[in-house]
Amino acid sequence: MLEVDVVIVGAGASGLMCAIEAGKRKRRVFVLEAANKPGKKILMSGGGRCNFTNYTVEAEHYLSENAHFCKSALSRYTQWDFLELIHQYNIPYHEREHGQLFCNETARDILNLLLSECDKVDVDIQLNADIQAIHKRSESGFKVKTRSQEILCQSLVIATGGLSIPKMGATPFAYKVAEQFGIKVQPTRAGLVPFTLHVEDKAKYAALSGLALPAVISNERQSFTENLLFTHRGLSGPVALQMSSYWREGEELAINLLPGLDLQQQLLQAKKEKIKLKVKNYLTQFLAKRLVSIFLQEELLEICLSDLSHKQIETIAEQFNNWKIKPNGTEGYRTAEVTLGGVDCHAVSSKTLQANQVAGLYFVGEALDISGWLGGYNFQWAWASGWCAGQTV
Ligand code: FDA
Known about the structure:
Elements: E1 2-3, E2 6-9, H1 13-24, E3 29-32, H2 40-44, E4 51-54, E5 62-63, H3 70-76, H4 79-88, E6 93-95, E7 100-103, H5 108-120, E8 124-126, E9 131-136, E10 142-146, E11 150-153, E12 155-158, H6 173-180, E13 185-191, E14 195-196, H7 199-205, E15 212-218, E16 223-230, E17 234-236, H8 238-244, E18 253-256, H9 263-272, H10 279-283, H11 289-295, H12 298-301, H13 310-321, E19 323-325, E20 329-330, E21 338-343, E22 361-363, E23 371-372, H14 377-390
Parallel strand pairs: 1-11, 2-3, 2-12, 3-8, 12-22
Antiparallel strand pairs: 4-7, 5-23, 6-7, 9-10, 10-11, 13-21, 14-17, 14-20, 15-16, 15-18, 16-17, 18-19
Helix pairs in contact: 1-5, 1-14, 3-14, 9-13
The structure holds dihydroflavine-adenine dinucleotide.
Dihydroflavine-adenine dinucleotide (FDA) binds at residues 9-15, 32-35, 40-41, 44-46, 50-51, 129, 131, 159-161, 164-165, 169, 171, 173, 337-338, 365-367, 376-379, 382.
Keywords: FAD, Flavoprotein
Protein name: Flavoprotein
Organism: Methyloprofundus sedimenti
């Protein structure tokens, strides 16, 4: 029987950060990872370049049933703290729009940094671990049973992430542990995920597959401005992924395909000035030809701006400035970047990440009901929550 101070389940972003911090405090740390390699999601993140944090991190960039929960950890371990590590390791990085920070070369730089820090403080990482049971011991601490051994520990940290990308080894392990100890789990669903369209819409917009353009997507609660990408399944691109986290089944979205251009005003002005330009020639100054011809009927496209009726102007403006579309659904966990919902934050200390009613049990990272926007916010949450738990475990 092995006896350690801390067992961390999951060698992802939050688990490795927690291991490093606990190791620095001279705690004997044992990490159990189900996959054959640590940090697989880090490696695939940000298109292989890992958007590891953001210059601006605020509570409003996160979704949770407990909106204030993330504030404590995010203020104790900030993006500047993580950047200090990046600078220590001389990892080249760059800023993209909205303050997003990416590696210049490869996401492996981030994983190597974490593994090297783990090494410095003698963290043990066991891969291919198969946890069969967890028992709370009557005195204190836990017994963790894997297929090959039993491990006693004082603190147990659940850092197994959410349900997104099951092919990468995502499991509902955290939710099961929470339930075992009577901790509520907020309903989960896929977030930061492309929309799929109903059959008729899919057929109608199929020819636009591959087309990207700036757009504003809104529903009654949120609005995002970024690039929209038409795919052969539906709508993707950063703006669609962001909105997916705020979308509810059956809800209609309003999409402005010409942000910053008030088409109704422009067309009224053109009519007043008696401009002899066909609608199609006017619109293709701003939009791809194939998009314009799918969105408007042939007879409208051929009319000169000077001859448009007020009703026609309204129709055209509505079509591009306020395109209404009701997605069929999303691509689900198969391609989602995050899982919305998870272990209820009301049941966990926002400062230490320890379960309020179960001494020694901690939840960190995406396993909790905290999901960030696209833009490095999910990793910043993983670093911050892992760091905070690492100070106490
Ligand atoms: P994470 O999922 O990283 O780690 C959990 C670990 O637990 C995994 O190693 C898993 O194998 C292991 N595990 C699961 N079940 C287990 C069990 N039963 N026993 C033992 N181990 C188990 N975020 C961001 O900020 N910037 C970005 O660029 C991206 N890009 C991105 C791309 C893609 C394709 C995805 C899917 C996700 C992103 N994300 C992102 C989100 C980000 O990857 C995610 O929020 C963090 O990795 C969450 O960190 P965790 O440590 O909580 O879980």
